[in-house]
Amino acid sequence: MHKRISKSLAIFLALLLLFAVSGCAEQKTNNPTTVTTAVADNQELETTLELSGVLVPAQTVDLSSKISGQVTNLGFNVGSAVKAGDVLIQLDTEALKAQLMQAEAGLQSAEAAAQSVQNQASLAKINLDAAQKLYERTKSLYEAGAVSQSQMDDTTDKLNIAKNQSENASGPAQNQAQAAINTAQANIKNLQVQIDNATIRSPLDGIVTNQSVNVGTVVSPGVPVISIVDTSILKMKCTVTQDLLPLLSINQEMDIKIDSYPESKFKGSISSIGPIAVSTGEVFPVEISIKNNGSLTAGLSAHASMNTKVSGVVVPASSVAQNGGENCVFIIKDNIASKRVVRTGLKNDKGTQILMGVNAGESVAITNVNTLTDKMPVNAN
Q1: What's the confidence (pLDDT) of residue 129?
Q2: Which residue range is the domain that position 353 belongs to?
Q3: Residues in domain CzcB-like C-terminal circularly permuted SH3-like (predicted)?
Q4: Shared domain check, 286 and 137
Q5: Residue 364: which pLDDT band, with cuts at 50, 70 and 90?
Q6: Is residue 365 part of a domain?
Q7: What's the gap between Cα 275 and its chain centre?
Q8: What pLDDT, on a 0 to 100 scale, did the predictor assign at position 74?
């Protein structure tokens, strides 16, 4: 009997203990999470705008020949510094010079022929004047009955022949002679241009970065044979989102840091802001020009920064959480946390600009934000 009572008492105590533990656990689970809140406010945020990109030459020129020809001389090699006007490549011009001499001889022949035509025109004019005078005398004698009809007809025929000869010498013959001169001059000019094109010169100060020919190589028109880059000015190419565009302007100065030279500081200025977004999305191309002191090379990664101020809705930096790759905050109202996906702008260590998703005057959680869920009860203070 005593054993049965002891066993029943033990079971009763175990059930009582289990009920107490379950009750405590349930009470603990139902306790709302305590969060501290802050009010989103319209204010000015002072921060640093940072952009990242890669340095590229300010200007790159790929040169090709305008004519076919064999390379007879190379003025510079890859890596050489060149000045504008320096001869980079010389092509063979012997055949062109021979053709030029022939064209010049053709011009002399055409000019001589034109002079002959001019002399003939002068002679034809003298003959015409003489025939005209003879005609007038013969006509007077004919009208006086001193000469016969046949003599008058013969004089008239001679006048007509003289007129035709004069007209031909001063018209078509001279035009043809001038056309021959023009053709010869055009041939000479064309050959002179080809001879000039046989010398490939640098159009700018820079460095030879590529050379695809050697002495003896036959080049074809339009095929790139040498490249020149201007590295006296380098450009940092980067992109910015559309909300940052109002903060940027042409010639705006920025501080530049080069990853390969962490201890050095450089200055740059915005030289270009693309008016059209790039194809990858709502970002716009920006170029920042940097004067090269000789230590920088194209291809280095760089970062540009400047102090700036923005105005708008600002929340404490601790209120913004990452959730599923999105920025979000939790709006606290009537002790209920409501998740809001937001689009953020600039930020500093204290505050974050909210471009979309939060209105001024709304309360946001600034503690325990990573443990909150949508529509979760909280204890706000």
Answers
A1: 86
A2: 33-46+311-380
A3: 313-369
A4: no
A5: very high
A6: yes
A7: 12
A8: 95
